[in-house]
Write a structure and sequence with these properties.
The complex is a heterodimer of chains A (407) and B (237). Chain A has 13 helices and 12 strands. Chain A is α+β, with helices and mostly antiparallel strands and 407 residues long. Chain A is elongated, with a radius of gyration of 33 Å. Helix content of chain B is 32%, strand content 29%. Chain B is built from 7 helices and 10 strands. In chain B, a hairpin with a 2-residue loop joins strand 1 and strand 2. In chain B, helix 3 crosses helix 4, helix 3 packs parallel to helix 5 and helix 4 crosses helix 5. The chains are: A alpha+beta (407), B alpha/beta (237). At the A-B interface, helix 1, helix 10, helix 11 and helix 13 of A face helix 2 and helix 3 of B. The site of adenosine-5'-diphosphate has 11 residues of chain B, from strand 1 and helix 1.
Chain lengths: 407, 237
């Protein structure tokens, strides 16, 4: 019995192709918009969160130079004020677990006929631990190697590709600024940093080697930044305070003098960032909800326009033997099929657009079940309500009144 | 002959802006199985109102209507729908076909509500369309065929369930005289062949002459009820 009514529902949909299409389209657009917008919002959220997390957990970063004040950069910004000794002193603090003083600079690499410009990071053995960065092959350098100036290098995936192609880079000798280094490790792929740099396009060398043999700095023993991992999330704020006191004391800064260094608490950065991206998600979702709403109004209009025609149709059906239940069931089937089809197509189109956006505009997208189901549920409910409402009204009329209905 | 339907002291009021208007007044009428009854009367005399009540499309305000042994006045929605589905075939002046459904689909529609499978439905609809002379138009749409043909489709739709009672409210009203005659001949043949009870409203005496019995309504009351041939319209309407 439900099968014959299903047949009637399908026949009615086929007989009114334009109405069927417009209804499904209204739902499709609403659902697709929500899926796409929320995917963009959540993708951005995830991208920012991931790149912050990829820097390491419980991370404090100390840089040379005064903090920004009133938009004016501190005067000593270009003069390195942090030293390896500072880093070692920080390492003595109880709440500090790992410390990695780093220097960075551009270098040219040569291997055989290939050469490649990249960034070299000179740092301590703890650097990889702080950043939870694994090696794809080979080994890292030890703390004594880091301080002794031995010429070994860890290379990123991009560098390995450029210099070695498919060959095994381990044990090979490459020239860094004309100085021969032995490749002892290959870094795992890490992807983009928050600033949009490719973190796989770099090499890591011992701190002392970088200072003495690559960047022959006029400020011996200085570093551009120190990364510190606190023992636990609770240690972050107290550690930040202790580091500030320690460095002010070591740099002999008077009570009135500004800091000549900047401390960034990455946990705070990540919280702020997730707040901002969360807002973005909500905003995009709200914009998409408007299109869902507009789609709903469109559906309502289409259904209302066809009420006269359909009321007569219902009158005819009742006159030749349909009961109220038959009518309602047929219209329910019709509405469910149309809105479901529109909703499923909307999800597919939304996901397709999200993938397209990721491909074409390099914007991250993430599709999660919740907003998809919510948009689907809302639009299907709207479609079914407005599909069933006129039918319910007509089925409550006497057949003769439905037959005579003039809108 | 057994009685198929009986009206007793039946009344119908319509609520209008000027208060309730009594359209049918104290109607008592019985129709036997196999009869061919014509209902006549001037415009506004209550013919359509009576037919709609007979067809269970509307309900009386007072009195009783017994159809096929059942008091229709006490039936609920589902039972009324079943009566319309199984006992009655209705033919309207304006055809009332579904414009976007093929002729077969239109004729098969009453069988949908009898829970009859699609294959049997379409076969019976096709047979019925053939009987009313439309076997070449099975998959056409109603707007593509003439008024006379549309009324034949409507008749096929009324017949397809093999009902006990065919009700036709001015079935020839929208047709020219010749086509009207053909439709009435069709009704007469069906009545003759299958013994199906026919009640046909018309205001054309020539059309009424196809029936055997005539009921003449005047202002909501039965003015004449007897053989068609004995009725003289002079001085009326
Ligand atoms: N739905 C209605 N509401 C109010 N008055 C109606 C309605 N239907 C019919 N009438 C009135 O009832 C009377 C009888 O109508 P009807 O049964 O259609 O007459 P007939 O078919 O004999 O021409 C007319 O005066 C008509 O105006
Ligand atoms: Mg009438």
């Amino acid at each position: 019995m439900i099968l014959s009514l299903l047949g009637e529902a399908l026949a009615a949909m086929a007989a009114n192709r334009l109405r069927t299409f417009l209804t499904a389209l209204g739902i499709l657009i609403g659902v697709a918009a929500v899926v796409l917008m929320v995917a963009i919002g959540q993708g951005t959220q995830k991208q920012v969160g991931d790149s912050i997390a990829s820097m390491g957990s419980n991370l404090l970063i100390v840089r040379s130079g005064a903090p920004n004040k009133g938009g004016v950069h501190g005067g000593s910004g270009n003069m390195p004020t942090l030293t390896v000794m500072d880093a070692q002193a920080i390492g003595q603090l109880a709440r500090a677990a790992l410390v990695a003083p780093t220097v960075m600079g551009s270098v040219q690499l040569v291997y055989g006929p290939n050469n490649w410009n990249t960034t070299a990071t000179g740092t301590s053995a703890d650097y990889l631990n702080i950043r939870s960065w694994q090696l794809a092959a080979g080994r890292g350098f030890t703390e004594s190697e880091a301080m002794s100036g031995v010429r070994v290098a860890l290379i990123g995936q991009e560098v390995a590709n450029q210099l070695f192609g498919d060959d095994n880079p381990l044990g090979k000798s490459i020239r860094v600024q004309r100085t021969p280094f032995t490749v002892i490790g290959l870094l795992d792929a890490k992807g983009q940093s928050m600033g949009g740099q490719n973190q796989d396009d770099m090499i890591i060398v011992p701190l002392a080697t970088a200072q003495r043999q690559l960047f022959g700095s006029q400020f011996q023993g200085t570093v551009s930044m120190v990364m510190i991992q606190a023992r636990s999330p609770e240690d972050m704020s107290p550690l930040e305070k202790s580091i500030r006191e320690l460095l002010r004391q070591r740099h002999h800064l008077g009570v009135r003098a500004d800091d000549d260094f900047r401390i960034t608490n990455m946990t705070e950065v990540s919280e702020t960032a997730s707040q901002v991206t969360g807002m973005l998600s909500i905003l995009l979702g709200a914009i998409a909800s408007i299109s869902l709403f507009v789609g709903g109004i469109g559906i309502m209009n289409i259904m209302m326009v066809s009420v006269t025609e359909r009321t007569r149709e219902i009158g005819i059906r009742m006159a030749i033997g349909a009961s109220r239940r038959d009518i309602l069931l047929q219209f329910l089937l019709e509405s469910v099929i149309i809105t479901m089809a529109g909703g499923i197509a909307g999800i597919a189109v939304g996901i397709g657009l999200a993938l397209g956006v990721t491909r074409v505009f390099d914007v991250w997208t993430a599709v999660t079940a919740m907003p998809v189901l919510l948009a689907f549920g809302v639009s299907v409910a709207v479609g079914i309500f407005f599909g069933l409402y006129p039918a319910r009204k007509a089925s409550l009329m006497r057949p003769i009144d439905a037959l005579r209905y003039q809108g | 002959m057994s009685e198929l339907l009986a009206l007793h002291d039946l009344g119908k009021d319509y609520d209008t802006d000027a208060g309730p208007v009594s359209v049918l007044k104290h109607l008592t009428l019985g129709i036997n199985e196999g009869e061919f009854v014509a209902i006549m009367g001037p415009s506004g005399s209550g013919k359509s109102t009576l037919m709609n009540i007979l067809g269970c499309l509307d309900v009386p305000t007072s009195g009783s209507y017994v159809l096929d042994g059942r008091d229709v006045g006490v039936l609920g929605d589902v039972d009324l729908a079943r009566v319309r589905s199984e006992v009655i075939g209705f033919v309207f002046q304006g055809f009332n076909l579904l414009p976007r459904a093929t002729l077969v689909a239109n004729v098969a529609l009453p069988l949908v509500y009898q829970r009859i499978g699609r294959g049997i439905r379409n076969a019976r609809a096709a047979t019925m369309l053939e009987r009313v002379g439309l076997k070449d138009w099975l998959n056409s749409l109603p707007p593509r065929i003439s008024g006379g043909q549309q009324q034949r489709v409507a008749i096929a739709r009324a017949l397809v369930t093999e009902p006990r009672l065919i009700l036709a409210d001015e079935p020839t009203g929208n047709l020219d005289t010749r086509t009207g005659r053909e439709i009435m001949q069709l009704f007469q043949r069906i009545n003759h062949d299958s013994g199906m009870t026919m009640v046909v409203v018309t205001h054309d005496h020539n059309v009424a002459s196809f029936a055997s019995r005539l009921v003449y309504l005047l202002d909501g009351r039965i003015h004449y009820d007897g053989p068609v041939d004995d009725f003289r319209e002079e001085g009326l309407a």
